[in-house]
Amino acid sequence: MGKQKERKDKLNRSVITSVVLHLLLIALLIWGSFVTKSGLTGGGEGGQVIDAIMVDPNAMVENFNQQQQQQANAKQAQAQREKKAKQQEEELRQKELREQERLKAIEEERLKTEQKVEEQKKQAEEQQKQAQEAVKKAKEEQKLAEEAAAKAQAEKEKVIKEQALAKKQADEKAAAQKVAEEEKAKAEKAAQEKAAKAEAAKAEAAKAEKAAKEKAAKEKAAAKKQASEVDDLLGGLASNAPGTESGGASAAGQGGGKKSGTNSDGDMNGYIAQVRLAIQAKFYNADMYRGKTCTLEINITEKGTLISVKAVGGDDGLCQAALAAANQARIPAPPSKSVWQQFKNTKLDFKPE
To answer: How far apart are the C-alpha atoms of 2 and 54, rounded to whole Å?
Structure first.
């Protein structure tokens, strides 16, 4: 665009210079014609001959025509040049417009390409980011899955161990229960045998008590008979004597004391045997403590209800088992208040049988 303007300026200066020169030439010709006329007039008046330049009008006209033609040609040429210049300028402008359009299209295409590349780059970055996030998520899910699998495996192993332990405990419990049942059966059998022995002992005690009572009655009757015979012999004096009366009372007292003592001891021994049997009935591991002894201090009510029991000596293991058995045992009621008075705070030696 700048070069076209420069060429146009040069063309305008050339035209202006040509016009100015033509105008100067026309002015000189006109001035020359005036000078010639003045010279001719002056020569007539003064009678003097003056040298002058003669100008042929035809030549001037021709010259003027030539000049006009030249000017017309120049104008035509100028017009052609201007037209050509305009054409060239238009062509150049069109070319520049086309070039600008082309450059604009190229720029738009470049911008579109850059935008497309930028979008592709962003898409690629987004895809890469999504891929990285997907990989990260997959790793996290894999880690969670591995942790879940490990946890499930641990739970499975734990369940297996618990099942094995439960089975073992169940087996041990079943075995212990079987042993306990066997021991219970043995204890019940032994208790029954002991109860039978106790009943036999009680029967023997009753028999002994009966024999003692009969013996005491016989002795009392013999003493009474003897006293009567003495009274008869002494004529009633001996029977009224203080010493004789005292002796009879003493004999009766001895007989009564013997009877009472025999009855109380038998009942006490029988009751102690019953208490031992009641505790033994709830004692299931007698073989483990065979030959060992535990001393129990037992406190009961008059109806046989257990108030307290404690171990005061003997084997610790046996005492623990004996205390458990005593707390579970059904203690029978004492046969009499006198037996309860003797037994209510008694100490009992327990030996498992």
So the answer is: 52
Q: Which residue has the tokens 């043995």?
A: 186
Cβ atoms of 352 and 292 within 8 Å: the answer is yes
Instruction: Indicate the residue type of 150.
Output: A
Cα of 29 vs its chain's centroid, Å = 122
- Print burial letters for 89-126: b (CB count within 10 Å at least 16), e (below 16): beebeeeeeeeeeeeeeeeeeeeeeeeeeeeeeeeeee
CA 189 to chain centre: 58
At residue 294, what are phi and psi to the nearest 5 degrees? Answer: -135, 130
pLDDT in tens, 106-125: 888 888 888 888 888 888 88
The 3-state DSSP class for residue 94 equals helix
Nearest to 10 by CA among 26, 87, 2: 2
Distance (Å, whole) CA 293 – CA 349: 7
User: 194-198: which pairs have CB atoms within 8 A and are 24 or more residues apart?
Assistant: 194/273, 194/276, 194/277, 194/280, 194/353, 195/274, 195/277, 197/273, 198/270, 198/273, 198/274, 198/277
Q: Residue 307, CB half-sphere, CA atoms under 13 Å: how many?
A: 12
Cα 280 to Cα 221: distance, rounded to the nearest angstrom: 45
Residues facing residue 347 across a β-bridge: 297
Beta bridge partners of 350: 294
Report how far residue 115's alpha carbon sits from residue 127's, in angstroms, rounded to the nearest whole number: 17
Beta bridge partners of 84: none
Question: What pTM did the predictor assign?
Answer: 0.29
CA distances to 128, 172, 202, 206, 275 from 196, rounded to whole Å, are 97, 35, 9, 15, 14
Residues 271-315: tens digit of each pLDDT: 999 998 999 999 887 888 888 999 999 999 988 898 999 999 999
Q: What is the DSSP letter of 352?
A: -
- The amino acid present at 308, given as its one-letter code, is S
Contact 26, 67 (CB under 8 A): yes
Give the Cα separation of 130 and 122 in Å (integer). Answer: 12
CB neighbours of 235 closer than 8 A, spacing ≥ 6?
none
